[in-house]
Structure formats: structure tokens, C-alpha cells
Amino acid sequence: MMPHPRQEIDISFDRPATYRIIAKGRIDQLWFEDLGGMEIHVESHENEPAITILTGQVRDQAELMGGMNSLYELRMAVLSVTHTAVD
Predict the structure, then answer these.
(1) Which domains does the chain have, with CATH numbers?
(2) Sequential pLDDT tens for the chain (87 residues)
């Protein structure tokens, strides 16, 4: 079986881009500014732990890492980080 070709994504360290981050647990809206103004959406299903979905644009990779560090400080397990668009 031949491997599928990977789509080339033009991501730069110093340009804005939009990301979707999914973390295990619940984040309060009070963290909005500390997470770079990303939209915060919490999903909770019966008998399952809550997950928080953060969506939004970051100025550059440094700002993305700042948001990731905030999640680390909150002791939240990051389940996925998806680059959704170059802005």
C-alpha cells in the first residue's frame, strides 16, 4: 500500500494563523485574555470528563506557545492542536 502524500501547509513562525486546541477539563471564561483572546467552548457529556475547545487566531508561534504554557500551568492535558488556516 502506498502512503498518502502529505499536504504541504505554509506555516510560518512569525505570521498570524488560526488554531483549534482541545484540552481535557474545563476552562473558565476568565482565562480569555491569558489565552490570547481565543474563543473558549466547554463540552460536557454524561459520564465523561469535560473538554475545552479553544479556537482563534494567534499572532505568531510565540503567542501559541504562551497559550500552551497557560494550559500547562492549569494542569490541563492537551488532546490536540490543529492548524486551521493561515491568516
Answers:
(1) 17-86 (3.30.70.260)
(2) 555 555 556 667 788 889 999 999 998 888 777 787 889 999 998 888 899 999 999 999 899 999 999 999 999 999 999 988 766
